[in-house]
Every structure is written in C-alpha cells, then in structure tokens.
Specification:
Length: 145
C-alpha cells in the first residue's frame, strides 16, 4: 500500500495557502487529494460532529471511524444511529479492541486494555510509547510529547 506523505516544505506552503480559509475549504482539498485513503476519526463530541457534517456535505460517502471502548454510554450509540439516519451514505465503522484483525487499523492492532485497566498510548513524531495504565506515567509522557 502506498502512503502519500507531505514533507515539511509542502506543509509550510499549505499552511500559508489555507491561512484564514474556512474549514470546509481545507476539508474539500484533503478529501479530494487523499480520497479514497482518507477517513474522519471522531469520538462524537460536538466538534467531531460538526466536522462530520462538513465532510458529509462535501463527500456523502465519507468514511468515519470511531473506537468503541466498551465503555460508551447509551447516548453515544443513540447519536451514532441518528447520524446514520441523517447521513445514510456515510461509511461509519466502530472499531473495538477485540474486533477481527482485518477491522483494526495497523496502528491499533494488539492495543486494548491491560489487566482490565484503561490503556493509553502517547504518540509523538510517528512513534508510540509502550502502553500506559498509570495516570502519573501518562501525565509524564504527555508533558514530554
């Protein structure tokens, strides 16, 4: 699989080009440039739902990913169903830590709870830490990132 990367020079040029633009302009560019290898990741908070709406207006078949941690409240599932009704062409995938391997992106494969405890991975410069289940260790890693 080929992955298109943006180097620092192009990223700087794009930052200048899109400075002051509406978010839809950047989303349209990204969807056009990276389709079909692009997806929106959301936890269904307000900002994620706004981005989902913007993307769906540009590309009704937008791929949307979210992680079902096994601890989501029923309200989140109700919202997901309402979004599926509102955007019937949207390709919404809920990924679970124990999902079949072909449904888990490579970056998340093998990562889930450890000893039944919530687990975090802090990533910086395309490298992720070892799994962290301790809040103090997580805070230290986040401060370093």
């Amino acid at each position: 699989m080929s992955v298109e990367l943006i180097d620092e020079l192009e990223a700087g040029e794009l930052a200048i080009e899109f400075e002051g633009e509406e978010p839809e302009v950047l989303l349209e560019w990204a969807l056009e440039r990276f389709s079909p290898r692009i997806a929106l990741s959301t936890a269904f908070q307000v900002d994620g739902c706004v981005l989902l709406d913007m993307c769906a207006r540009i590309d009704p078949e937008i791929r949307v990913l979210s992680v079902d941690t096994g601890r989501l409240p029923q309200e989140t599932f109700d919202l997901i169903e309402a979004l599926r009704e509102r955007y019937p062409q949207m390709q919404l995938e809920l990924l679970a830590p124990d999902a079949p391997p072909d449904k888990i992106p490579p970056l998340l494969q093998g990562k889930g709870q450890i000893g039944g405890r919530p687990t975090a991975y802090v990533c910086h410069d395309y490298t992720c830490s070892q799994p962290v289940t301790d809040a103090a260790k997580l805070r230290d890693l986040l401060e370093q990132a």
